[in-house]
Amino acid sequence: MASRRTRSIGTKVTPEEYARIQTLAGEQPVSEWVRAALLKAANPPAADATVLAEVLALRAILLNLHFHVCSGAAVTTETMQRLIERADQNKHEQAEARLSATTRRNP
């Protein structure tokens, strides 16, 4: 059985903001559109976290590779494999942490 909606959230908007929201809501009730938009913003798509995780892993690999090259160390296949494994190790946790921090700062 579906859970009943017993909690309420309210906000004030300008007439211009309300008109924009009405336009975006289209045929559905404004309250339902706002609810859906709020829930969507509170739960970003998994694709966002996946893309960010890959970018963070790539960043870690590039920074570490740059450090190795600048320090004159040889970049072997084993070195690259180690860098990749280390970058992949916690990329998803880092992405979730950054997305959560951004959501807390910029609701």
Explain how this protein is built.
- It is a single chain.
- With 107 residues, the chain is mainly alpha-helical.
- It folds into two domains: 12-43; 46-105, no CATH class.
- It contains five helices and no strands.
- It has helices at 15-25, 30-42, 46-70, 77-89, 91-105.
- Helix 1 (15-25) crosses helix 2, helix 3 packs antiparallel against helix 4 (77-89) and helix 3 packs across helix 5 (91-105).
- It is elongated, with a radius of gyration of 22 Å.
List the SSEs and their pairings:
Layout: H1 15-25, H2 30-42, H3 46-70, H4 77-89, H5 91-105
Question: Whole-number radius of gyration?
Answer: 22 Å
Percent of residues in β-strands? under 5%
* Class by alpha and beta content: mainly alpha
Report the biggest beta sheet as strand number plus sense, adding barrel if it closes: none
Tell me the number of structural domains: 2
Mean pLDDT metric: 90
Helices and strands, in order, run as HHHHH
Helix content: over 70%
**Globular, elongated, flat, extended or rod-shaped: what is the shape?**
elongated
The tally of helices reads 5
- What is the number of beta strands? 0
Head-to-tail CA distance between termini: 31 Å
Q: Give start-end ranges of low-pLDDT stretches.
A: none
